[in-house]
Design goal:
about 140 residues, two-stranded antiparallel sheet, mainly beta, about 10% helix, 10 strands, 8-stranded antiparallel beta sheet
Length: about 140
């Protein structure tokens, strides 16, 4: 049996023209907004599973406050707020494995909160999409 290797530096995330770099030492999180199925039990104990058509999702990308991607994402967020032209494809791919998340149409939810302290901090960019496609694979 071969030893598998995960290499966090091989995570690639793009939002439109922005190839993100300068990730903070925190998890990138990607999740759907709702469960794919819900369950309802009747009085007799028999249940029904209901498929949820909502495929929306959120992606949170923590960047170091020094990352150039902050400037690029800020520019997109400002344009989007003024013109509504800030919707782009979003892709997150683990090049050391087989996991891929993709959205044809994604947008920045809001500018990240900013803190200024003794050490460099992070900026958490939150993206949302109405259709998050995925393949969660191994390495």
């Amino acid at each position: 049996m071969a030893v598998e290797t995960y290499a966090p530096e091989e995570l690639v995330i793009t939002f439109g023209p922005v190839l993100m770099s300068g990730f903070a030492d925190a998890d990138v999180t990607i999740e759907h907004n709702e469960d794919s199925f819900t369950f309802k039990a009747g009085l007799d104990g028999k249940g029904t599973r209901t498929k949820n058509a909502n495929k929306s999702g959120r992606v949170t990308v923590p960047l170091m406050q020094t990352s150039l991607a902050n400037d690029l994402l800020s520019a997109i967020a400002q344009v989007d707020r003024k013109t509504g032209q800030g919707v782009f494809p979003l892709l997150a791919k683990d090049l050391s494995g087989r996991t891929v998340y993709a959205a044809q149409d994604a947008w920045i939810v809001k500018p990240p909160a900013s803190g200024f302290g003794k050490e460099a901090g992070q900026r958490d960019w939150i993206f949302e999409t109405d259709n998050l496609e995925f393949h969660v694979g191994g390495n």
